Amino acid sequence: MALNDQGLYSKDFAKEWDEIKDYGVRSNFYTTRLASSRSQDIQYPGRPGHLLFLENEKVSILDDAGQVLLDSFGVEGVKADLCIWLLRNEEFNITDSKPPAAELLKEIEQKLRSRYTSDVVDALLCDEPALNGLIDMAGGDVLTDQRPNLPEILEFESQEEEQDVPVFAKVLTDDLPDDDKVFNIVEKLLSRGSKGILFSGPPGTSKTWYALKVALKIIEGELSRLERVQFHPSFTYEDFIEGLVSTGSGGTGDPMFEPRAKVFLKLCDAARTNTDDLYILIIDEFSRGDPSKIFGELLTYIEPDYRDIEFRLPYSEKEVSIPQNIVIFATMNPYDKSVVDLDAAMERRFEVVELLPDIEILKVLLTAGNVSGPKLGKVVNFFTKANSLSPHGFGHTYFKGVVDDGDFILLWNHKLKFIFEKMFRFKEDAYKEVRETYLDILDEGNKDALS
Fold first, then answer.
1. For residues 377 and 184, what is the distance between their CA atoms, to the nearest angstrom?
2. What are phi and psi of 96, to 5 degrees?
3. Nearest alpha carbon to residue 350 among 188, 181, 200, 182
4. Which of 56, 170, 274, 442 could anchor a disulfide with 446, C-beta 3.0 to 4.6 Å?
5. Rounded to the nearest 5 degrees, what angle is found at the Cα of 339, between the Cα atoms of 338 and 345?
6. Which residue has the higher pLDDT, 427 or 87?
7. Number of separate helices (H) and strands (E) present in the chain
8. Residue 431: how many other CB atoms lie within 10 Å
9. Alpha helices (H) in 312-427, listed in sequence order
10. How many angstroms separate the CA atoms of 306 and 303, rounded?
11. Please, how many CA atoms are within 13 Å of residue 31, restricted to the half-sphere of its CB?
């Protein structure tokens, strides 16, 4: 930590570094930077790694640093949070989901000492209150042999923080792992110059979820750099690019309509003011509208080679261009017979990331609902059977939130039954086979409830 010439700390590393020339952090460290660093490494100017990663660095501590930390930050009260933050990218060698407190603390200390200096580790683990605070976050007590839950102690958001976030808003959280296979594919495509990614696959395969999560990771959670629309049969060029809007000026001699920029042009204007960062447009249900008509003359200019080349708009007659820092993500179910096929010109402008039914994701969803043992195996067997018989695949997300037989019965009676009746309209034997396999999931006393 350091002060500038006026004895003040800087407020933001990224924005004020060139002006203030110091690494001051003060309160902003424990708010903005600590929060956003929980799930990723935040890089700072001139530093070889993320904040507090001390390998290969020479660090000096001011004589009164301890008192400054106590007075300004209440360090005693954040030791547990700091331990968890420092270990955010570590993998633990504990297989027991509820290990004894002593075993967990030993593993925590080993991980800390493998990455940080002894001074840092000793300061974090020097007293009983700090250790108790760490265990208390998992509902245990270091002085007893209570067994805290490992996934809970490694959760990067506290219980109180989670309660403050509405369930529907959690999808807008930037929390996709760095090693996620879909993110890595998209990252490679973008690095090779792609400006359009199409997430394609059968229903229930996380297309929209992945498009949003990958976008949030790329823009580091800055929602101001993200725009979302959904195409549908009545969605037009006038809704997407620009259109005439009534001014209510009848009888005054002024025009009754004037051209207004719409979703895509507004995003272009925003991206042009900040060319160092990517801006992303997500188009859901891409082929439910008519993409070629909706894009109009922009079909040419969304190509990488035609970015930043000006062209004239038909309504406003303005000269505009599409900046290089705009990327389009789109989702599409190519098996939906109610949508139009993409023409070759549109397909050529997008790389396709195919998302297929995934047994591993299915297992994660089921485990989250405490579905385990033989029942989990029976669900996987049904999932495999349904996909082997389906003409285009059957997604894993239908099982999100399923916990017990009551949920399985509701899922079939009010959703899956109708999907498979339509899917196997002319294959009665296939429908019966799928239903019998699903029936096997239920306990004996609940089978009669399946319609």
1. 30
2. -70, 125
3. 200
4. 442
5. 160
6. 427
7. 22, 9
8. 18
9. 344-347, 359-368, 373-389, 405-411, 417-423
10. 5
11. 8
The rounded distance, in Å, linking the Cα atoms of 171 and 167 is 8
CA 89 to chain centre: 17
Confidence of residue 244 (pLDDT cuts 50, 70, 90): confident
State residue 386's pLDDT score.
93
Lowest average pLDDT, out of 76-90, 91-105, 185-199, 323-337, goes to 76-90
- Please tell me the least confidently modeled range out of 236-245, 339-348, 391-400, 419-428: 339-348
Owner of token pair 């009669």: 448
What are the CB-based long-range contacts (under 8 Å, 24+) for 100-109?
A: 100/145, 100/147, 101/135, 101/140, 101/141, 101/142, 101/144, 101/145, 101/146, 101/147, 101/148, 102/142, 102/145, 104/135, 104/148, 104/150, 104/153, 105/131, 105/134, 105/135, 105/142, 108/83, 108/134
Q: Helix or strand or coil: residue 320?
A: strand
Pick the closest to residue 304 from 163, 451, 393, 195 (CA basis). Answer: 195
- Start-to-end Cα distance in the chain: 67
3-state secondary structure of 246: strand
- pTM tops 0.85, yes or no: no
Angle at 235 between CA 234 and CA 237, to 5 degrees: 125
Q: Are 392 and 201 in contact (CB under 8 A)?
A: no
- Asked whether the beta carbons of 310 and 322 are under 8 A apart, the reply is no
Short-list 135, 87, 92, CA closest to 115: 87
DSSP 341: P
Give the Cα-Cα-Cα angle 110, 115, 120 (nearest 5 degrees): 85
User: Are the CB atoms for 185 and 194 separated by under 8 Å?
Assistant: no
What pLDDT is attached to residue 256? 74
| Mean pLDDT over each residue of the chain, to the nearest integer | 75
- Nearest residue to 399 via CA among 237, 215, 239, 204: 204
Q: Looking at per-residue confidence, does 126 or 44 come out higher? A: 126
**How many whole angstroms separate alpha carbon 48 and alpha carbon 66?**
25
* Residue 199 vs residues 32, 120, 206, 208, 396: alpha-carbon distances, Å: 32, 45, 9, 8, 16
Read off the pLDDT of each residue in 196-218 and give the average, rounded to a whole number.
93
Question: What DSSP string runs through 19-67?
Answer: HH-S---HHHIIIIIHHHTSSSPPP-TT-SSSTT--TT------TTHHH
